[in-house]
Amino acid sequence: MAMNNSILIIGYPKSGKSTFIAQFFTRIKKRKSSIKLAKIPENIKAITDTVKRLSMGEEPTTTSADENVELLLHINVDGENADLVCPDYGGEQVNNITDLMEINEHWHNLLNSYDRWFLFIRAHEITPEYDLSISSYEEIIKEKSTVLKVPGLSEQSKFIELLQSLLHIKNKGLKKQVVTPTLSIILTCWDELKNKAKPVQVLQEKLPMLLHFVESIWEKKSFEIYGLSAQEFSLNTPEAKEKYQNELPENFGYMIDPTGKKDKDITKIVKASLQL
Ligand SMILES: Nc1nc2c(ncn2[C@@H]2O[C@H](COP(=O)(O)OP(=O)(O)OP(=O)(O)O)[C@@H](O)[C@H]2O)c(=O)[nH]1
Ligand SMILES: [Mg+2]
Asked: Measured in angstroms, how far is the CA atom of residue 231 from the centroid of ligand 1?
């Protein structure tokens, strides 16, 4: 069966989903991107609030847990038309998948109708894992109690378990390496990172087990790793807010391609995914 161009953004709360979707749309609407709009979208309710907030220099608000909205865009990529569907939802729903092992009917439908997955990871918030080969058990416990922010599952196992559960629904990954869905791991809020290595190196440093898992489950040509700063900087100071109001949101944001090259055109992340 042919692959579709629907992109499913998978991300825990506050991983930057709504900001990216809004910035993506604003870029293509203002023609500041390599992707073009083929047709005016019928309904942009999914992102109106976030687009408006950003234009006032305000941070987006959390999408409520029970909210499910979809943005359907008819786009043109290098002369070829494609329909792009991006759902936005409260990231709490992803928490439920790993915390409660709950995949409801809505998520079953999402997983079965989207062939391109974007996994959003806010890399700066990930505590580096411990090297089990050099630390004694006591040291790990001592360190864990002071450093690890998230109780329960370690962040690495949480992401691995999430991908395993999602693949299970799609009935993929057990016997053969995965080709569809393709997977783009997007390290969001890249501006927050101190170490500006290549995206794959950041993932190796922060979540080595996850990288290993993905490399062994997905076919090499079906996954890639990008950096993304859809907002470019935090909007928590009056100066930052003013900059946004004066210079307009579509002039901010950048992505880092797998080779480590920075590009202002964040829509290229979508373009690259459509070519996987
Ligand atoms: N510094 C920085 N902050 C960002 C960036 N992108 C998003 N943020 C901030 O991160 C926070 C979360 O962004 P959202 O886009 O609301 O995240 P979300 O994944 O939609 O969150 P939920 O709706 O709760 O699931 C907001 O305060 C944003 O302003 C970025 O590129 N850089
Ligand atoms: Mg949101």
From this structure: 8
